[in-house]
Amino acid sequence: MHLAVGVSLAARGKLAEALPLFRRAATVLRSWGQPLDLAHALIGQAVVLRAAGDRSAAAAAIAEARTSVDSCPDPGILSARLAALERPRERAQRGSELSRQERVILRMLSGPLSESDIGRELYLSHNTVHSHTKAIYRKLAVSSRSDAVDRARALGLL
Questions:
Q1: What's the 3-state SS for the chain?
Q2: Closest CA to 45 of 74, 84, 16
Q3: Is there a contact between 115 and 129 (Cβ–Cβ < 8 Å)?
Q4: Residues with Cβ < 8 Å from 55, sequence gap 6 or more?
């Protein structure tokens, strides 16, 4: 439950409230011996810590998540999420690559609206919003909406 609430709070930008929940989830999952769930909690914790500017604590969470993911025979998508966190950060480059319109759409992607709904709100066609979304994914080196939002938060764009 701590992990789910932490993810929900982080997705809504309530990072200060999410961090203790990610920490509590990691503590509980360590004792339960659930490496995939532990890695998920640690990745969420690392994203929040980076957004808060605590790079050393984020690096420690990433290192522990790597150990946890490496112990699993099939870590699934967690390997890709972790690899994205481990890549060298290029804050200035990545942030400056996004156009003004892409930044507007990126902020809206962090909410509950679909691409069609975003288009209606901004008076843009769905195809235009989808094109901007694909450009955002490419520029942030991600492959999903949730990864784009996580990366944007880690880079301080949201």
A1: CHHHHHHHHHHCCCHHHHHHHHHHHHHHHHHHCCHHHHHHHHHHHHHHHHHCCCHHHHHHHHHHHHHHHHCCCCCCCHHHHHHHHHCCCCHHHHHHHCCHHHHHHHHHHCCCCCHHHHHHHHCCCHHHHHHHHHHHHHHHCCCCHHHHHHHHHHCCCC
A2: 16
A3: yes
A4: 49
Nearest Cα neighbor of 150 from 76, 40, 74 is 40
Mean pLDDT of each 10-residue bin along the chain, 158 residues long? 82 81 88 85 87 82 88 82 72 62 92 92 92 89 86 82
Q: Is residue 125 left, alpha or beta, with left meaning phi > 0 and alpha meaning psi from -120 to 50?
A: beta
Mark 37-66 as b/e (b = at least 16 C-beta within 10 Å): bbbbbbbbbbbbbbbeeeeebbeebbebbb
For 34, the token pair is: 């659930």
Encoded tokens for 44: 């969420």
In this prediction the pTM is: 0.55
